[in-house]
User: What shape does this take?
Amino acid sequence: MLKFTEDHEWLNIVDGVATVGITTHAVEQLGDLVFVDLPEVGAKLSKGDPAATVESVKAASDVYCPLDGKIVAVNDALTDDPSIVNADALGAGWFFKLELARVEDADGLMEEDAYQALVG
Amino acid sequence: MDDSTTLKKTPLTALSVELGGKMVGFAGYEMPVQFPEGVLKEHLHTRSKAGLFDVSHMGQVILRPRSGHVEDASLALERLVPVDILGLKPGRQRYALFTAADGGILDDLMVANRGDHLFVVVNAACKKQDVAHMRDNLSDVCEVVELTDRALVALQGPAAESALAALAPEVAGMVFMDVREVLILGVPCIVSRSGYSGEDGYEVSVPEASAEAFVRALLANPDVHPVGLGARDSLRLEAGLCLYGNDIDTGTTPVAAALEWAVQKVRRTGGARAGGFPGADVILPEFEQGASRRRVGIAPEGRAPIRGGIDLYADEISTGPVGHITSGGFGPTAEAPVAMGYVAASLSDIGTRLYAEQRGRRMPVTIAALPFVPPKYKR
Assistant: This one.
């Protein structure tokens, strides 16, 4: 189940665990990423908490936790090579895996067509 | 962009848009921050081949001596800058600073001796007050003429010489800070071998009607790529060069800014033309006594860029900052975050470890030698 947020994150939810990254649109806005700061595995975060930070050649941006849950994995490869996000935002450029507190919370997020309409 | 109607255009704005430039407002002008290649690749291309920058937003001003003798204009300008202008030979250019009565810096600029007049290039954001400042203080000796009908194009990088020499072979014979009038595509241009990237290269003042044809001719060379303000900033930061408004301003003196090299001995205490510029009573004693704080290079130890405005601390717990970052970002050539800022003079030695507070965490940083990337000027 692929979902999107207004903060330009994508969630691929399988068995109550969401793999979270930022959208191609977000990456195009940010430009070349040079730094990614990821959350601690085990951290319990609420929706809207800053979960990760990305720095591009232009500016720093927070990546917010899209739903309540617990971080169960992070993509350490991004720490060494942030350009993976530019190259493959929706795949190899994932940021973290979030074990959702309540899977049904995802029902409130956008489907892909709604997100595409948002970013036009 | 709501403000696009109020932003001024340069003679090259339309071409920048045509080339896919992402346009932003900068110092009142509509300028490209990047092209489709992106800031990182534009930066690296400039260091490996050649980058072409529209810098037409900067102010171009002629100081024409009423007497006909350029020495009179040079001596007059020395009233406003702590720099040896009289000693600047025809065909040569030099970096200068407009100082204020309290020792602060009003702007930084380039001054060229063009034989019978001086040619001055000032920052876009300051040009209105700079021109007024020169009119108010130099009009008895000089006619102050702002050139509003010329573009300014910077071509920077190791391939700049071959690219420009293909249009005007004589530029290959120029060295760093030479200035000449050169016929390019049949049009008289003012060419200086200078720039603000740390690379060899040129800045070319070209009549606005000919600017686009000139730039298109350069861009026809595959070594030359258009570069925006984003990479211009990361290039100058790696080169340790100050951005007025960030790294120097009315609150920084030349010595605090580590710009002693811009004040030649002849204008310092004991020199033949010592003082005689605004703030000399504050600025000159600092050459002996030092300033209480100093501009330094700052190398963050981690991968995270540390940007302007962030405070620096002596250790991980103390509450009072000992300095702050004025410019910072990722250095694509340094392959690491790079920054500069001001710290207390006692903490300004290279190798001193300090801490930058970012996102609630204290990140270790080290005072580093400037520049981060060695200059490639052709001396």
Remarks:
- Helices of chain B lie at 13-18, 39-48, 70-77, 127-138, 160-165, 208-219, 229-238, 280-289.
- The longest strand of chain B covers residues 105-113.
